[in-house]
């Protein structure tokens, strides 16, 4: 499993796609946080990163599908998947290796954004006047969100040999998982079940963790969601195998 993980990670890092994708993510998030009038924290006037953490999930809907779209799609298109499954390694280990390799790249994209926390902490009056607990909770929420979106991306990549189609499917599923249940709960016929429907969506649990409170129910939700899509991937790839 480690050999597949290392091969997958180095394959990402040896291509320009990972660097370009992460670079665009950091550029856009930086512009939204510091320069664009409607979202700039300098215009907002408060030492907090709530605006940043509310914007990143939408950037993740494009960043993570771009990272994961090649996981299985490229293997099958180039014919190397047949070689991979003949190795003495179980299918779930292959899936886990590709999943964790993609998740490491998501983590690489998040780590540079810590400079935003440092900068705002220094700009605060008095210096250091920022809710560290809320920031830590929000970063944990972002990591769990990234883990869930990565599982969706791996699943989407297992459905097709075309990376573009995998990207589109993954982005659509991520958007629905994050926003779809909230919009569905607003349908008149479903309003009486609004609370139950919104609890099925990621947004509700991400917002809860972003407040700085780690609820066991939210952690169980994200772990279960991730495992569910990895199981879907195993079922798809197992059938094709």
TrEMBL record:
Highest taxon of the source?
Answer: Bacteria
According to Swiss-Prot or TrEMBL, what is its membrane topology?
Answer: Multi-pass membrane protein
Pfam families for this protein? ABC2_membrane_2
Give one GO molecular function term.
ABC-type transporter activity
Q: Where in the cell is it found?
A: Cell membrane
Q: Which residues cross the membrane?
A: 12-35, 55-73, 94-118, 138-157, 164-181, 219-237
User: Which keywords appear in this protein's UniProt record, sorted alphabetically?
Assistant: Cell membrane, Membrane, Transmembrane, Transmembrane helix
Q: Which GO terms describe its cellular component?
A: plasma membrane
Q: What is this protein called?
A: Gliding motility-associated ABC transporter permease subunit GldF
Q: Which organism is it from?
A: Pedobacter frigidisoli
Native organism taxonomy: Bacteria, Pseudomonadati, Bacteroidota, Sphingobacteriia, Sphingobacteriales
Q: Which gene encodes it?
A: gldF
């Amino acid at each position: 499993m480690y050999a597949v993980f290392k091969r997958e990670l180095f394959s990402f890092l040896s291509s320009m796609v990972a660097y370009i994708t992460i670079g665009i993510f950091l550029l856009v998030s930086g512009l939204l946080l510091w320069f664009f009038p409607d979202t700039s924290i300098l215009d907002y006037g408060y030492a907090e990163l709530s605006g940043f953490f509310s914007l990143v999930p939408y950037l993740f809907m494009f960043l993570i599908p771009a990272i994961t779209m090649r996981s299985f799609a490229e293997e099958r298109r180039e014919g190397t998947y047949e070689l991979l499954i003949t190795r003495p390694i179980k299918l779930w280990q292959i899936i886990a290796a590709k999943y964790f390799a993609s998740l490491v790249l998501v983590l690489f994209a998040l780590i540079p954004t810590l400079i935003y926390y440092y900068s705002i902490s220094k700009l605060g009056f008095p210096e250091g006047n920022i809710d560290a607990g809320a920031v830590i909770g929000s970063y944990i929420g972002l990591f769990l969100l990234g883990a869930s979106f990565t599982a969706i991306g791996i699943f989407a990549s297992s459905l097709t040999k075309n990376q573009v189609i995998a990207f589109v499917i993954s982005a659509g599923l991520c958007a629905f998982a994050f926003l779809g249940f909230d919009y569905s709960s607003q349908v008149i016929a479903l309003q009486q079940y609004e609370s139950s429907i919104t609890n099925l969506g990621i947004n509700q649990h991400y917002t809860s963790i972003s407040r700085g409170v780690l609820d066991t129910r939210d952690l169980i939700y994200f772990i279960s969601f991730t495992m569910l899509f990895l199981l879907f991937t195993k079922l798809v790839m197992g059938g094709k195998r």
